[in-house]
């Protein structure tokens, strides 16, 4: 298990390095940051002054090296627009996004896994049909529309929840549902498929034959095996939620990291974008890493591979 | 049963909490939404409209221009005169204090001007400050500002973007500190700043009595950034917001029809225009070097129809390359009426009887651009439409690689034609005409202190721009303001909402 963990860790670090280098190169190609910073009224001389002031005139390898050297020591530079340290800015916005992501994935797992199991136990029953209906809806409904429907219902008609902001737990109810509902269908369908597969397996029949209770068969024998692909999927979904909740953050005015990334890309705020890309890719890497470990713990055969 | 009771408790709590979010006339708080994030409140380090709005409430300038009458009045200065055409002398107002208690005097003016005028300090919008050379203290309440060159629009700038900062405080905290804890002499003082997200302002009780801005009426401003307009609307309906602006025309119409809110419309200084590569920088065989092609396009687009069906409100078609209220913006120029037959005929004359294919660049208002594509198509001009980010398009324009683009310019609410024509027609990298005659005329207009002479030379330049069809000015923009019926407010054409001029009914 230790060798396996170390191998995975080494791979994760290499991926992080590759992502940071690639994103730096892409940002470098995407447009002139000096023109963006200098603003609307700048002439060519102003832009040249900005270019030299921020050091954009140097080769990108040098700029990358300098950025990496500082980043390793926790210094991600200063935002060109906020005039604040990027680390402070990102940490502030990430707290909202992480809370939202955790709530979202919990909501998705807590609804999708029981539904998936229920659907698998009675395939083609009414429960299965309802679960299928819910998942198709979740997949088909764009989150900006679903979000607005919830706002109209809960904020305007019923006056139960505030439409926007991030001050109270009430602010997170609707965003959690919207974000979680988007991830739910895939998790549910995968749970159902995994369970159907496993419930027909020999060892389940053996378990039943030796007289194990139905509950024990379901959760100790079947779900433990059926859940393995779900864990991997949930990890990827979680990474997606942390980096890709731009739409939800924007509708509910949550000011999280996703929205910050979107805005920063628009205004070429390179240090902020670069730090966010690194953080988002780290999330994917960390979650994939954790799900690998979790799966290896669930299924000892994986520890060899 | 216990569970149900517990559930009901949470239910009631949620209702109570949702109720407290709404605040308005009853507790003297105006809840405002911005659509865009304001990153840094320090007005010298942002170029956002939201920044200008904050600046006018938090800080004062030496001069104030009454937005309703256009008259210049002393604010931090009581009066001023031109010593010569490069020196302005100001008598300062006594007894003014900053929000932090620091008294205002000549040292604050001198320190602010000298600091912002120094290019090394990196003030974001250089054009607002780079006409100043330095400031000099004559005595505690008298200063002189020295200009780099004669600059007749100086008073307009001093009444606009140039605000006076407290010298001791700014020296200590710099732009970062000023952005987080802004301190000025203005009618509102800042209570809290969450960068980009949330700003709370309170009426400044010690605001100087004789200010032409007048005293603030509303006690507290709570400003939040809500990017999506639909969410803003939901907040309006649920009582979480009292005032929003830049409301899309269709939504403004339906909100007005509902009758629950006051919906006001006012023109802004921003105009839209098509810019043609008349100088041929984007390639020698460029059809836009041919005046007939530029005129053909000018006749091909029904600007009236676009204004009537899309921009609506107080938007108007403009023919001169500036906003009509700006000083020197002569309206007596060549007008290109909508005449597709004439457009086809001009194209044929230009050597394109079967039409032609062009690149059409834009960075905003896709729907307006697409309407124009349709009109061009109708006279036989096929367009490759390219919608870019603002900075990307600007970079291409500076390199001279853009043959035709749909651009807009807001003149930073400076009510002087120099803020637009002189910005684009003095042979700079964004000058797609590169007409030396126009530059000569603009040089005269920009530096003369004789206002009749200025008018005459701006007029010459604007007439030639229209006659040559270097630009096709399209329309002025407008903004819709939606607010609670409890609020008294009249929007201004410079599109700068002034909170200190709002009051409860």
Give an overview in words.
The complex is a heterodimer of chains A (305) and B (505). Chain A has helices spanning 2-30, 33-38, 44-54, 60-72, 86-121, 126-140, 143-157, 170-199, 202-209, 214-226, 228-244, 246-251, 257-266, 270-298. With 305 residues, chain A is mostly helical. The longest helix of chain A is centred in the middle third of the chain and has 36 residues, at 86-121. Chain A is flat and about 80 Å long. Chain A starts with a helix and ends in a 7-residue tail after the last helix. Chain B has 505 residues and is an alpha+beta fold. Chain B is 33% helix and 23% strand. Chain B has helices at 2-21, 49-58, 106-117, 126-129, 154-158, 167-180, 229-237, 249-258, 291-300, 303-311, 340-349, 366-378, 390-398, 421-424, 436-447, 451-468; strands at 29-34, 63-65, 72-74, 77-84, 87-92, 132-139, 142-147, 188-194, 198-203, 220-225, 243-245, 261-276, 356-362, 381-387, 404-409, 471-484, 487-488, 503-504. In chain B, the strands form 5 sheets. Chain B has a 6-stranded mixed β-sheet with strand order 11-16-12-15-13-14, with helices on both faces. A 4-stranded mixed β-sheet of chain B has the order 1-10-9-8, with helices on one face. In chain B, strands 4-5-7-6 form a 4-stranded antiparallel β-sheet. The longest helix of chain B has 20 residues, at 2-21. The radius of gyration of chain B is 25 Å and the shape is globular. Residues 1-22 of chain B have low confidence and may be disordered. Chains A and B meet through helix 2, helix 3, helix 7 and helix 13 of A and helix 1, helix 4, helix 6, helix 7 and helix 13 of B.
């Amino acid at each position: 298990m230790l060798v396996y963990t170390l191998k995975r860790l080494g791979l994760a670090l290499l991926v992080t390095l590759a992502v940071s280098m690639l994103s730096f190169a892409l940002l470098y190609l995407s447009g002139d940051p000096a023109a963006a910073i200098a603003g609307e009224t700048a002439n060519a001389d102003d832009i040249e002054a900005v270019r030299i002031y921020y050091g954009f005139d140097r080769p990108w390898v040098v700029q990358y090296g300098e950025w990496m050297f500082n980043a390793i020591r926790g210094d991600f530079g200063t935002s060109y627009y906020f005039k604040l340290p990027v680390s402070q800015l990102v940490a502030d916005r990430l707290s909202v996004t992480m809370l939202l992501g955790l709530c979202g994935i919990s909501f998705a797992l807590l609804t999708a896994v029981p539904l998936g199991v229920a659907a698998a136990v009675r395939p083609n029953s009414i429960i299965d049909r309802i679960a299928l209906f819910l998942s198709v809806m979740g997949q088909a409904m764009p989150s900006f529309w679903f979000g607005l429907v919830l706002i109209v219902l809960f904020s305007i008609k019923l006056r139960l929840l505030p439409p926007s902001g991030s001050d109270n737990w009430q602010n997170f109810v609707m965003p959690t549902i919207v974000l979680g509902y988007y991830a739910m269908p895939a998790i549910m369908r995968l749970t159902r498929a995994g369970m159907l597969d496993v419930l027909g397996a020999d060892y389940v029949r053996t378990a039943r034959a030796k007289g194990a209770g139905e509950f024990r068969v379901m959760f100790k024998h079947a779900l433990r095996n059926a859940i393995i692909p779900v864990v991997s999927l949930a990890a990827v979904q979680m990474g997606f939620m942390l980096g890709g909740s731009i739409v939800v953050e924007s509708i509910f005015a949550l000011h999280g990291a996703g929205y910050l990334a979107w805005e920063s890309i628009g205004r070429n705020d390179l240090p902020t974008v670069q730090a966010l890309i690194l953080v988002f890719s780290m999330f994917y890497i960390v979650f994939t890493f954790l799900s690998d470990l979790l799966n290896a713990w669930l299924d000892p055969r994986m520890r060899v591979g | 049963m216990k569970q149900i009771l517990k559930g009901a408790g949470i239910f009631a709590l949620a209702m109570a909490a949702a109720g407290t979010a709404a605040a308005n006339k009853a507790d003297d708080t105006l809840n405002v939404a911005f659509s865009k994030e304001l990153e840094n409140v320090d007005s010298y380090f942002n170029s956002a409209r939201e920044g200008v709005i904050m600046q006018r409430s938090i800080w004062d300038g030496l001069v104030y221009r009454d937005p309703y009458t256009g008259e210049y009045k002393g604010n931090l200065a009581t009066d001023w005169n031109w010593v010569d055409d490069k020196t302005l002398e100001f008598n300062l107002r006594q007894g003014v204090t900053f929000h932090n208690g620091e008294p205002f005097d000549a040292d604050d003016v001198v320190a602010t001007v000298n600091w912002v005028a120094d290019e090394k300090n990196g003030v974001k919008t250089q054009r607002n400050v780079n006409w100043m050379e330095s400031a000099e203290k004559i005595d505690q309440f008298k200063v002189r500002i020295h200009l780099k060159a004669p600059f007749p629009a100086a008073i307009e700038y001093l009444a606009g973007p140039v605000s006076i900062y407290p010298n001791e405080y700014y020296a200590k905290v710099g732009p970062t500190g000023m952005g987080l804890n802004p301190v000025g002499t203005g009618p509102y003082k800042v209570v809290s700043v969450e960068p980009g997200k949330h700003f709370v302002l309170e009426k400044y009780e010690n605001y100087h009595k004789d200010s032409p801005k007048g005293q603030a009426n509303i006690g507290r401003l709570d400003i939040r950034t809500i990017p999506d307009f639909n969410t803003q609307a939901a907040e309006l309906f649920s009582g979480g917001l009292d005032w929003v602006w830049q409301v899309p025309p269709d939504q403004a119409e339906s909100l007005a029809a509902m009758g629950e809110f006051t919906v006001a419309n006012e023109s802004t200084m921003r105009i839209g225009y098509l810019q043609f590569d008349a100088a041929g920088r984007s390639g020698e065989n460029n059809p836009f070097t041919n005046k007939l092609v530029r005129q053909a396009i000018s006749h091909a687009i029904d600007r009236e129809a676009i204004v009537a069906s899309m921009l609506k409100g107080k938007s108007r078609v403009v023919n001169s390359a500036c906003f009509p209220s700006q000083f020197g913006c002569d309206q007596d120029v060549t007008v290109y009426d909508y005449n597709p037959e004439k457009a086809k005929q001009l194209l044929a004359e230009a050597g394109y009887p079967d039409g032609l294919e062009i690149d059409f660049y834009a960075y905003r208002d896709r729907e307006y651009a697409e309407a124009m594509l349709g009109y061009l198509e109708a006279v036989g001009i096929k367009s490759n439409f390219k919608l870019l980010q603002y900075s990307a398009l600007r970079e291409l324009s500076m390199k001279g690689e853009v043959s035709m683009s749909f651009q807009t310019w807001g003149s930073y609410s400076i009510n002087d034609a120099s803020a637009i024509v002189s910005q684009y027609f003095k042979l700079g990298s964004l000058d797609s005409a590169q007409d030396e005659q126009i530059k000569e005329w603009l040089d005269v207009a920009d530096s003369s202190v004789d206002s009749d002479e200025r008018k005459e030379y701006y007029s010459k330049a604007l007439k030639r721009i229209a006659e040559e069809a270097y630009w096709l000015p399209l329309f002025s923009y407008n903004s819709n303001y939606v607010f609670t019926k409890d609020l008294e407010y009249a929007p201004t054409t410079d599109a700068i909402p002034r909170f200190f001029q709002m009051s409860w009914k």
